[in-house]
Design a protein that fits this description.
about 240 residues, alpha+beta, 10 strands
């Protein structure tokens, strides 16, 4: 994936937006609109990555971690024990989970069992003051007491406005942005059907790039690692 900076994108895409050139603020605004749509619309190349979180404990004894700016959500978690270098896969549960009538309700802080992380919602819940950084997501961590493991997570990238010329566009497919600029123009004059044609072209570029990038990946087999604990044998499910 060739890198594309904000400065390069403004120079490349300005002809589709403004006769003034890349310094026109309209160009930067258009690129941000398209970039946000690309990031929020699918798992394209570059839209997910791995991030490690350290678990904290709140005043009520609940284990948790908060995401940081640039991360929209956690998709999967692997808790790695620093002493034994073993890992446990965990499920990501929705914020509705404690209220599920068929579920276990609110689990106490001393709950011990399989690893689960439960989304708690935005932190802070109240609106932020002007100039503050974005709302993060909080995840409650359940399964081990004390919880001293590192949470290695596959995460979904969040949209962060492009401001500096050195900021990188992700995804960075040039053809996708070219079609996105044209779609943006048609939407602004309420030509929604024509805009959709160009959005379709743009997303096809992103999907084709992602499919090509992932083409060599092996199919996965689920492994049950706990069947013969504490031994190291594994059985296929």
């Amino acid at each position: 994936m060739a890198s594309l900076t904000f400065a390069q994108a403004k120079t490349l895409l300005a002809p589709y937006i403004s006769s003034v050139g890349p310094t026109d603020p309209v160009v930067a605004a258009a690129i941000n609109f398209v970039n946000e749509r690309f990031i929020s619309s699918g798992q394209f190349r570059g839209n997910r990555f791995i991030h490690s979180f350290t678990v904290s404990t709140d005043s009520e004894g609940n284990n948790y971690f908060d995401t940081v700016t640039g991360i929209e959500a956690v998709l999967k978690v692997l808790a790695v024990d620093p002493d034994y270098m073993t890992g446990e896969l965990g499920d990501v549960m929705p914020d509705w989970y404690p209220w599920d009538e068929g579920g276990l309700g609110w689990l106490p802080p001393n709950y011990v069992g399989d690893l689960q992380i439960v989304r708690q919602g935005n932190v802070p819940a109240a609106p932020l003051p002007s100039g503050a950084t974005a709302d993060t997501q909080r995840y409650r961590v359940l399964g081990k007491i004390p919880e001293n493991r590192s949470m290695y997570c596959i995460v979904r990238r969040a949209y962060v406005p492009l401001v500096n010329d050195s900021d990188l566009l992700i995804p960075s497919n040039r053809n996708a942005y070219r079609y996105g600029m044209q779609a943006f123009n048609y939407e602004n004059v309420n030509e929604l059907e024509r805009a959709q044609v160009y959005w379709d072209y743009a997303f096809k570029c992103l999907n084709d790039e992602t499919a090509s990038f992932e083409d060599g990946e092996l199919a996965q087999i689920q492994i049950q690692t706990k069947a013969f604990a504490p031994g190291i044998m594994q059985n296929l499910v």
